[in-house]
């Protein structure tokens, strides 16, 4: 963050901006290359086309059970199925306690009851219980990294995260999701005359088709989705064309601790594809401690857009995995605007750390196992970023502009850096505002192949569509027909399976969720 650039005149900066605009206009006028098509024939009365770059399958992969049996205690479990627990009784009690919302002190209180002691359990307090649980086969391991900046902060911060590639592999290997994962890009038409397209998943859209044509022959598109709440991911999966985290790392310092989160909150927002995974990250503040600090975090969840959205909505399938907790610090600076820019820069810095393995896979590819144990060659460009409007402002301002590609944004940043150093945050931010920039000099997508903000920043469905209707459209209807008439018409609507019915109308609703919409 302390690197300086040589100064140049404003005319040179304006020339770079104008050149970037020309590049954008030229790119916008280039028609997309039509990839070769494999005719899929007619299925259920619909015409189907498949991309010529068909994903290949390689032998030698691992299934879920193959990975499960690579655990250090596999041999012991062949003799004692409940290992490391001594009996089924110990396992059932431990399983129940770990899935409840009881605190550590409440679990200790339960284990100290006379009734519990009479059962002679293998563990007698919470820490001992956790030690036994951590011997079970685990999913992706947690790790942490200290966040260092050139500007002083009130607290030393750590980012806790898991390798997103490991999380995606965990989802791919889940046998419960094997029948609802789609690896093939396709174009579906309502009839054989191919006049009307059908869009019901990301893999049926034009963007997935384009990405599949950019990866090497035989590589596979696995679209991943990131977010802070599953509801956002379901909305994203329906709109882009269209686990419980267990701290299994034996190193206690590698576990997320609230005191390392910082005094305020955490942010994240992102969306990534795998082998073209897509990742989308909405952010919603979540309290992680009560009374002791009142610390908050924005948890980052990851899922696969290849999975049918109806299956992602089933909580018991664990289609969402917690991948990161990204801190937002308090910088020691008198200027409020400068503190805001520093927080935004730290956000991109943390996001770069979390997505490092995804960037590497997007450049070179990576071999991953599919649900049935085959191996596939995968690439991971970023294709969607789903976030609340405040988090989207980390990438753009709230005003409408002509279409600009990521290259033009990078050209603008480069032009500003020629005239002033990014270390002078106040002056750098003022100069950036002239070019519609937000003061970020190294965006996290800078070195991410096939990832462009003009593509991966998607509409925020909950507020832009659903809340828009509730806050504005509905009020217009009430103004036109009156409350009583509108309630009466909602009460007369026929009840359909899967849809919400309003037998008392809608005027009495106070807080409306996505299901109500």
Q: What can you see in these coordinates?
A:
Helix content is about 35%, strand content about 10%. The chain is an alpha+beta fold. It folds into 3 domains: about 30-40 and about 140-395 and about 445-460, no CATH class; about 70-135, no CATH class; about 470-515, no CATH class. The two termini are about 45 Å apart.
Describe, in short, the structure shown.
This protein is of the alpha+beta class. It has 19 helices and 16 strands.
Topology:
Layout: H1 10-29, E1 37-43, E2 46-51, H2 64-68, H3 74-79, H4 88-99, H5 104-111, H6 114-118, H7 126-133, E3 142-146, E4 158-162, H8 164-172, E5 186-189, E6 197-198, H9 206-214, E7 222-227, H10 230-239, E8 265-266, E9 273-274, E10 286-287, E11 296-297, E12 299-304, H11 309-312, E13 321-325, E14 327-328, H12 336-354, H13 356-364, E15 366-369, E16 375-378, H14 389-392, H15 406-419, H16 425-434, H17 453-456, H18 461-481, H19 483-492
Antiparallel strand pairs: 1-2, 2-5, 3-4, 4-13, 5-6, 7-9, 7-12, 8-14, 10-11, 12-13, 15-16
Quaternary structure type: single chain
Q: Quick check: average pLDDT?
A: 75
**CA gyration radius, whole angstroms:** 26 Å
Number of domains: 3
Proportion in helices: 25-40%
List low-confidence stretches.
1-13, 15-36, 230-283
Globular, elongated, flat, extended or rod-shaped: what is the shape?
Answer: globular
Largest sheet, described in full? 6 strands, antiparallel
Q: Quote the beta fraction.
A: 5-15%
Number of helices: 19
How many beta-strand segments? Answer: 16
Walk across the major sheet and give the strand order. Answer: 3-4-13-12-7-9
Class inferred from helices and paired strands: alpha+beta
């Amino acid at each position: 963050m302390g690197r300086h650039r040589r100064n140049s005149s404003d005319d040179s900066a304006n020339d770079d901006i104008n050149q970037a605009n020309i590049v954008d206009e030229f790119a916008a006028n280039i028609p997309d290359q039509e990839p070769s098509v494999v005719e899929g024939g007619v299925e259920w009365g619909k015409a189907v086309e498949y991309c010529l770059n068909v994903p290949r399958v390689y032998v030698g992969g691992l299934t879920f059970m193959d990975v499960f049996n690579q655990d250090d205690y596999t041999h012991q479990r062949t003799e004692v199925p409940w290992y490391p627990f001594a009996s089924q009784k110990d396992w059932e009690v431990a399983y129940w306690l770990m899935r409840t919302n009881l605190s550590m002190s409440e679990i200790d209180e339960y284990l100290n009851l006379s009734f519990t002691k009479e059962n002679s359990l293998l563990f007698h307090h919470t820490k001992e219980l956790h030690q036994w649980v951590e011997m079970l086969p685990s999913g992706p391991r947690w790790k942490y990294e200290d966040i260092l900046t050139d500007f002083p902060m009130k607290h030393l911060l750590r980012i806790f995260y898991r390798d997103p590639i490991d999380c995606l592999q965990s989802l791919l290997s889940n046998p419960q999701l094997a029948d609802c994962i789609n690896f093939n890009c396709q174009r579906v038409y309502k009839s054989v005359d191919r006049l009307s397209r059908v869009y019901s998943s990301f893999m049926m859209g034009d963007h997935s088709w384009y990405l599949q044509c950019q990866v090497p022959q035989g590589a596979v598109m696995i679209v991943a989705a990131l977010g802070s709440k599953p509801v956002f991911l379901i909305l994203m999966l329906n709109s882009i064309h269209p686990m419980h985290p267990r701290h299994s790392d034996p190193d206690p310092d590698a576990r997320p601790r609230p005191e390392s989160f910082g005094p305020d909150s955490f942010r994240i927002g992102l969306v990534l594809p795998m082998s073209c995974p897509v990742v989308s990250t909405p952010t919603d503040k979540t309290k992680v401690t009560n009374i002791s600090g009142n610390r908050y975090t924005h948890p980052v969840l990851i899922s696969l857009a290849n999975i049918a959205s109806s299956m992602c909505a089933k909580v018991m399938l664990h289609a969402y995995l917690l991948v990161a907790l990204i801190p937002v610090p308090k910088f020691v600076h008198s200027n409020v605007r400068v503190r805001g820019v520093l927080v935004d820069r730290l956000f991109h810095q943390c996001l770069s750390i979390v997505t490092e393995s995804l960037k590497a896979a997007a450049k070179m590819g990576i071999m991953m196992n599919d649900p049935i144990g085959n191996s596939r060659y995968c690439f991971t460009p970023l294709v969607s970023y789903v976030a609340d409007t405040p988090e989207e402002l980390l990438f753009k301002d709230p005003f409408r502009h002509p279409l600009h590609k990521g290259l033009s944004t990078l050209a603008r940043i480069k032009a500003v850096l020629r005239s002033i150093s990014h270390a002078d945050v106040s002056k750098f931010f003022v100069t950036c505002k002239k070019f519609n920039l937000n003061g970020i000099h190294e965006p996290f997508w800078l070195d991410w192949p096939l990832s462009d903000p003009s593509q991966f920043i998607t509409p925020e469905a909950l507020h832009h569509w659903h809340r828009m209707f509730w806050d504005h459209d509905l009020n217009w209807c009430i103004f036109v027909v009156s409350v009583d008439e509108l309630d009466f018409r909602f009460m007369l609507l026929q009840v359909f399976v899967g849809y919400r019915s309003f037998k008392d109308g809608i005027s009495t609703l106070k807080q409306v969720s996505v299901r109500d919409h």
